Amino acid sequence: MKNKVDLPVSGMSCAACATSVESTLSKAKGVKSASVNFATHTASVTLENEEVSLEGLQKAVQAAGYDLLVEEDERQGLEERQLNHYKQLKENTLYAGILAFPVFIIGMFWMTFPFGNIVMWALTTPILFVFGKMFFLNAFRQAKHLKANMDTLVALSTGIAYVFSTWNTFFPEWLMERGFEPHVYFETAAVIIFFILLGRTLESKAKAGTGEALRKLMGMQSNKVFLLHGKEHKEVNIDEVKPGSLILVKPGQKIPLDGVIVEGEAYIDESMLTGEPIPSSKKAGDEVFAGTLTNNVPLKVRVSKEVGQTVLASIIKRVKAAQGTKSPIQKTVDKVTAVFVPVVMGVAIVTLVVWLLFGGEEKALLGMLSMITVLVIACPCALGLATPTAIMVGIGKAATKGILVKDAESLEFGHKIDTLVLDKTGTITEGRPSVKHVVWDDDQQKEQIGTIVAAIEDQSEHPLATAISSHFYSLTDPVEVSGFVSYTGKGVSGHFNEDSFYIGKWSWLEEMGVRANQNLLNNAQQLLNTGHIMVYIAKNKRLAGIIAIIDPIKPGVKDILKKIKERGISLHLLTGDQEKTANLVAKELEIEKVKSSVLPAEKGAYVRSLQAMGKKVGMVGDGINDSEALVLADLSIAMGQGTDIAMDAAKVTLVHSDLQGILDLLKISRSTVSTIHQNLFWAFVYNIIGIPIAAGVLYPAFGFLLNPMLAGAAMALSSVSVVGNSLRLKYT
Fold first, then answer.
1. Residue 221 DSSP class
2. Model confidence over 451-471: pLDDT tens digits?
3. Quick one: 424 and 445 in the same domain?
4. β-strand partners of 403
5. Which residues are catalytic?
6. What does the buried/exposed string (b/e) look like for 640-655 if buried means 16 or more CB atoms within 10 Å of the residue's CB?
7. For the packed helices 660-695 and 708-727, what is the interaxial angle rounded to 10 degrees?
8. Pair 452, 531 in one domain
9. Which in 62, 75, 557, 718 has the greatest CB count within 10 A?
10. CB 282 within 8 A of CB 288
């Protein structure tokens, strides 16, 4: 979609920030829709037209307290910027930890240390306002726009603790005159900042790990290529090479661009496309793809696609786009996080008021500590990261298996399907007719006649001609024939020496006066009954042989479909092929429900009818005729060797066109959704349990009041645990 742009967002620190940016962009003039992914820090914006100013969107986001990177050089330097941010975060965490440690020791175990309060104040001040200043700056930016986010909670909690402790350090008599001990809580403010910085650092590092699959794919792209001019070659940047150019691929080098071999023969490792570890044999005329690896033989390749149009580039685009999409679960979580921070601030104020009214002698002190703890422990980051991190890792895992998932919803929905509709040709069959049987009237003449048949069919444009000529050329050397004539829809003829040959339908051969051979015709009928296409050969006026052609079922398909059925999924075969062939294929694969001679519109209607019965329908296809059904299906899967239209219509593409990918997708979908549910459960439970305890509900009965710095540690660990749980998917 030309009007859709993906733009990096900076300044976000929590899921509520992402919700705020998304709301700002959605309301901006000229924006049709917007989605912001906190895990990737990316905004996907659909514009009403190409004239919409990105600078205008940037100003709107900046007014909300964040920034949108719209300049090309800013976007290109994003990875470096993120790396620098991570390094700075790591340094701040280290220095904050070094200073926070003595503050913690003095505040918790060495309260009688001479000038201890002054020392703690001196060490805590740089922790908050140097190494942790980003929390206060971000909170101030939000406050200017009457908004609040996670940084607001952190700044309020640590700021209140710091101001209260500073006052008691320099003016202790104020509380002493009122009968209170002037306690200080520098260790609370210092350790909270340290723990939250530590959590952000670990989170930043972990989130970088979720994009590992994408970076590996991008790493397959070459930056340089050897361009051929005559016998000379020159190394140039890959973006300078246009389709039609001749390039040299040196021994052991990755093929830089898609193309066709002009000279050379090599074994090429195509495992990144096919999933097969055994290299493929390639020779002149064969197609090769960017990112695949040659053996120790040089190749000359005619480039067919530019760098941005290669199969590898397409894979990268699809994975990148999918990782930025949101699932239905995530949309629900976004609604929760949108109101989370204001609600938490309300709870904190209510906590303070309740303590002031019913808190006893030290009600003000306990009320302040409880309010600080509520502000610290209520972290929406775990909620915000629960879904996108799992989705990102799941999509990356699928990509390593040769499964391209276009959007998060497909990955989330995959395990729910109970009905799978399969196209036949190119999906469960090879999609390339091949000669299965040849029966001759006279075996002594089969080699000679086979050579002539290959030469005649080599001149034909019939879809089956290639299969026939390829079969016989693999057995014999070519000869020259004369007098080739094509009879559209009937057959072809030609001459060799003094003999005339006719190849085509039996009905046409009868018209040409060919005499029947009952033995051959009986064999032909048996083969017709098993779904083969029959081609008849006549020498002069005598039937000399028959050729049986079939579109073979892909290896291993029967076992794969059996495993899919074992998951409780009903299988349907839907094909435009004739009834006899469709039924034979369905019988061999043990598919009970089959419909043949189906037009494209009828495929869509069939999917609708299943959905009307309450079925969750998955559709697998590879052709233009499958596109409507693919769009309508709840889960649409295209074969990678199919048409571009089918792949565009489908939400999932199996790059290597192997149905094993469906089983892998179902497993990855189930694991991903399970991980999301685990993440959300612990994130919600953490807040449901943590906030009341932080407010002090256990204090009246048990005298227990949660320390704010323990709350800070728990908050940091909750985000890290969610991301860590998601990363387990990589090794499942």
1. S
2. 899 999 888 866 678 888 888
3. no
4. 654
5. 423
6. bbbbeebbebbbbbbb
7. 180
8. yes
9. 718
10. yes
